[in-house]
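ok so i was messing around last nite and threw this chain in just to see what happens. nothing serious, just curious
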Amino acid sequence: INLLKVEVQAPPRVRELQLASVPIKKEMKKQVLGTGFAALLGVALVGAGITLFERRTNRLFRSMDLSGATSMNLIGTLPDLTSAESMPAGDGKSLLDDEFMEGIDKVRLHLTRNFLDSRSQAILVASAERGEGKTTLAGHLAVSLTKSDRKVVLVDANLRHPEMHTHLGLPESPGLSEAIRGDQNLQEVVQRTTIPNLWFLAAGRFDGIAQQAIGREKLARIIDRLRQEFDYVLIDGHALLPVADSYLVAQHCDAVLLVARKYVSRKHLVEQTYERVAELGIPHTGVIFMGEASK
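result:
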């Protein structure tokens, strides 16, 4: 009886915090939508990851990735671009002592002995896309060619995005655009650099008139005139895939060097560009791979 009294007098062990209620339809709808959105987001992230992986695996990792293409002429490899991709602005003398020059000199010897012939004077350096190292190669190769006691003119035919003049410490204009339009004579726009045996033809002030004139005979006459005055005419062109400028320049050249860069160039685009250039019937076409590990 005493225990029963204690139990009756004790406070309730269960407290009522809130009356129970059935969830309304709006709250259930939010939960369903939230779950569905999370699922879609997960699928999208997985798809983006797969796409990113596929794009990355399509990049070039070594020169052997290109040598597997039977129609492609791989004519040389160069070491990593770490010392050359940031070509300093200045008078160009820094290129003479660049560590990258050792690899460039080897490529130059191979080009002059095994790839080019005595009539191969006008050489276009180009790439499939921007940022693959063509300006770096053109600048260093031009300097290397002067070491063989040859007169070299470096032409910046990347009229839309000229860069070479900053590395040589020379004005961008007047240059090729003015010569194509007929605003100035060719002799007036070719500049002497501080490097022995090296001259420079800047891009100049590009406009619609110059763009239309690229595909006409005036450009061919300019290149022929440079052939008469110099041993080598080395042309830094625009990337080939975005616009047709470099294709128009290439048809007046004796050789085309395509640049492919490790981790940057995409194999199918390099192959596609190579095939298009080969269709132009240029005597010599080859690829130089940048980023090969030193042995």
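not much to say yet. Residues 61-290 form a domain with the Rossmann fold fold (CATH 3.40.50.300).
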